[in-house]
Amino acid sequence: MPAVQETIDKVKAIDVDQYKYGFVTDIESDRGAKGLSEETVRFLSAKKNEPEWMTEWRLDALRRFRQMEEPTWARVSYPKIDLDDLYYWASPKSVEGPKSLDEVDPELLATYEKLGIPLREQEILAGVEPKNRVAVDAVFDSVSVVTTFKEELKKAGVIFCSISEALREYPDLVKKYLGSVVPVTDNYYATLNSAVFSDGSFVYVPEGVRCPMELSTYFRINEQNTGQFERTLIIAEKGAYVSYLEGCTAPQRDENQLHAAVVELVALDDAEIKYSTVQNWFPGDKNGKGGIYNFVTKRGDCRGKNSKISWTQVETGSAITWKYPSCILRGENSRGEFYSIAVSNGYQQVDSGTKMIHLGKNSSSRIISKGISAGKSQNTYRGLVSAHRKASNARNFTQCDSLLIGQDCGAHTVPYIESKNASAQFEHEATTSKISDDQMFYCLQRGLSEEEAVALIVNGFVKDVIQQLPMEFAVEAQKLISISLEGSVG
Amino acid sequence: MNASAPIKHTQAESDLLERFDSAKEGLSGSVAVKALREAALGQIRDRGLPHRRVEEYKYSDLRAYMKSAAPLAGAADEAAARSLIETQDGFGDLDRYRIVVANGSYLAALSDVEALASEGVTLTSVAEALAGEMGTKLVAAPKTGPSDGVIALNTAFLQGGVVITVKSGVEVSKPVELVQVATAKGAQSVRNRVELGEGAKLRLLETFVGDTGEGELNTVFDYELADKSALAATRLIVSKTDAAQLFTTIATIGAEAELKSLGFIAGPQFSRNQQFINFTGENSEAKIYGVTMAGGKSLADQTLIVDHAVPHCNSREFFKTVLDGEAKGVYQGRINVAQHAQKTDGEMMTQALLLSEDAEMANKPELEIFADDVLCAHGATSGQIDEDLLFYLRARGIPEDEAKTLLVLAFLSEAIEEYGEDDVTEGLEARVRDWLADH
Question: Where does the SUF system FeS cluster assembly SufBD core domain lie (chain A) (predicted)?
Answer without folding.
Answer: 219-461
